[in-house]
Amino acid sequence: MGFGAVARGIATPAYFNIPVDADYDLDGEKIKLFINPALVDFSEAVENREIYMVIAVLPLIRWMEYPIFKAQQMIKGSFKEKNEFTMAGGKTTNPQCSDKVIMHIGKESDPFEIFLNTTFVVKKQ
User: Fold this and answer.
1) What is the predicted pLDDT for the residue at 3?
2) Hey, which residues does 103 pair with through a beta bridge?
3) pLDDT of residue 4
4) How many independent structural domains does the chain possess?
5) What is the helix (H) or strand (E) element at residue 6, kind and residue range?
6) Domain of 118?
């Protein structure tokens, strides 16, 4: 954690650094992703905020703050059901994978639903 990482964390509280390990099977032409614990995740300043204003005889202003999931929880949660993907190009010099994972949390009868949409590209360098 050098000065750049500290400055980035202060200047952008929504900054995160999450290492991802991958197991690449050359014969099966598949890649399996593993999400590791975050080195840096959203700071405490990142949260959902709403302001309510009721104009009546006496005006009422109220701030509501809602917690937000950390980036590592969201990314790991989106790969919970599916973390193995087929690589296009196979054993060529430039195998790659471009995919999208959609994870739905909750039921339609719940007061709110959560959709985790993750899009990623993996290329050999």
Assistant:
1) 61
2) 116
3) 67
4) 1
5) helix 3-11
6) 3-123
Confidence of residue 12 (pLDDT cuts 50, 70, 90): confident
- Cα distances (angstroms) measured from residue 80 to each of 23, 63, 77: 16, 34, 5
Q: Which two tokens stand for residue 8?
A: 């980035």
Smallest Cα–Cα separation from 116: which of 86, 73, 57, 67?
Answer: 73
**Rounded distance between C-alpha atoms, residue 2 and residue 18, angstroms:** 16
**What DSSP state is assigned to residue 19?**
-
66-86, pLDDT tens digit by residue? 777 788 888 888 887 788 888
Rounded to a whole number of angstroms, the distance between the first and last alpha carbons of the chain is 25
User: Tens of pLDDT along 85-101?
Assistant: 888 776 666 777 888 88
44 DSSP β-pair partners:
none
Is 38:70 a contact under the CB 8 Å cutoff? yes
Whether 35 contacts 75, CB under 8 Å? yes
